[in-house]
Amino acid sequence: MKRRLFLKTTAASFGLATVGMASAQPDRDKYRPGGPKLGSSKSINLNAFHTNEELTKELETIDRKSDRVSLEEIGRSAGRNDPIWEVQVGNGDTKVHLITQIHGDEAIGTEVALKVIKSLGMSNSRQANHILDNLSFTIIPRVNPDGAMYHYDFDGDGDAEWVGRRQNTQSWAEGESEYRPYYYSTSPGGDPGYDMNRDFNIRPPSEFNPRTDDKEEWWSDEQYLDMPYEGYTLFGSGLRLAPEVRAVTESFIDADPDYAITHHHKGGNLYPDTGDENKPAKQTLMSVMAAYGEDYLERSPFYPATHEPVTEAVNPFLDYETSTRSIKLNSLVIDALAQRGNSIFDSITRYGYYPLWGSYLDSLSPNIANDGDSVAGMLYEVAYQTDDLGQKGLGRQMELTKVGFLESFDALADDPELADYSVETYFDTPLYGEGIQSR
Ligand SMILES: [Zn+2]
Q1: CATH for 5-428, among 3.40.50.150, 3.40.630.10, 2.40.30.60, 3.40.50.2300?
Q2: Ligand 1 mean position to 144 CA, how many Å?
């Protein structure tokens, strides 16, 4: 079996997310979320963000003050045993599942989610009521409390600094799975943990436990679970080793959503050079990505260049209707933000999509929930911090991101089928990384 190059490269670069190593990566990786970030962790002041304790307090306060919000602890983190919270708000027929901060060093989504929860839970605005009448949200702010609070001696001064990390804190023990999976790491501070956005599995827990039901012959290089599924091979499937991932999976199945949204960070990057001298290069502060199936194979930036199998280019378990809604959801966000006419948001880019078979979006959107309907999904990434975006700029960007989210939800509440939106808006949006020589 021919293993795809990108997966190996992803593993090799794993844990080095804060330092540039773009040169070692194949071209396609620069279009993908989760690549190397610009700037070092050191430049980030995490004191602007909620600790786990503060997050808990804030959510409990909102829950107490609002009769629309219900708050539930759905699990505990592997290392710190800190709570994982799920918030439900809204009474509409269209169900949205939203997760943030599955990568612990990507805190902005959680801060924005908190603002959104507060607005929806406590505001009596026309917009909030319209959204809540038409949409029901299940929100997991901060999937990764371990990574969010991660401290280590970054600068070697003898004291551990609060820098956060991508992984949770969890060790792998012999026998827990046939082999230790590729997404296990001890970076950066020496503590073990998993990249939880590689730990999901497409099969439902009620039918299949990948930790114990895996077969020796599915493994390659003693680290990749290349799981057969419905006639395909899903390279690098996850093992559901993390309790956080099991909690998110259960939450997703219970919610049985129509839309799934996941929020990440990226490094600042230049807006692609359009060749238009009237449109100067600038930072792109938000990128989006839709998950879609074989009906859009021809639109994949990696096909036919990467050739077979199709599971390397598209998610074959997403039907035409779902794929189209996924893409239109991204178009909606692009439109909603671009119409604001704010310079921060008129530079949206999109990622070149290909599936990661251990990710939240690709493993869960085929919908392992009972009814079998697949789920339209999107991923946001916002820029974290760049040289010209200081602490003040960061706060402003979070506020604007909140407004953008609410406007997008407002539009989704208007028409859950998204009839007015065009898939071409999405495909006309420049690819992240296009025209960029190096980073
Ligand atoms: Zn991420």
Answers
A1: 3.40.630.10
A2: 11
